[in-house]
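A protein record pairs a chain with a discrete description of its three-dimensional fold. The following entry can be read in just this way.
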Amino acid sequence: PKSLPTQAPDHIEVRGELVLFNDEFEAYNARLVALGKPPAVNPRNAAAGLARRLKQDKLPGAQLVFFPYSVIYHSGGRPETFGETMLELAKWGFEMPYSPGTLRPYDFHRNADEVVDFIDAQLEERAKLPFGIDGLVIRLENYAKCDELGFTSRAPRWAIAYKYPAMQATTQLDQMIEQRRAGFVEIRDLKHRPRPWPEWRA
């Protein structure tokens, strides 16, 4: 939002992440290729590059979405829980990465077993999301408990990032370019040679 309602605290710092949705990423790459530019490798790299880019650049742009994940209350007014903060941000007009099948921008679980079940369930839903994720952040709900635990020298004791295994896919290799010592370059057509790699080199 361009402005906050009058009931918002006077001085807050909203932290979050810029996200490039998958369909916007594909459209952005199509615009780059049409201009003869190399496409972006992945949405995360593209979002970082777009955020750093100057307005004077003549390269095509793309729509980035800001998802908040925390608020620093510099002038007071902090609610009791993280969930209340997120619901408040949603009321103020911030975009939220709502969990599939819920009406809340977060999921609350009461014990470790529930957290593990949610991690497994989200791994299955990961490919259905309109944007890429590489894991989840698991944190305490109650701010008073967070204050008790405090921080280490590098990170909070009340939150941890859980990373999923890298996504894997199968691709077909159509050509292979081999450069020999004398500088000779040979392009091998692999479409019609469905033999194991050791036989190709023979």
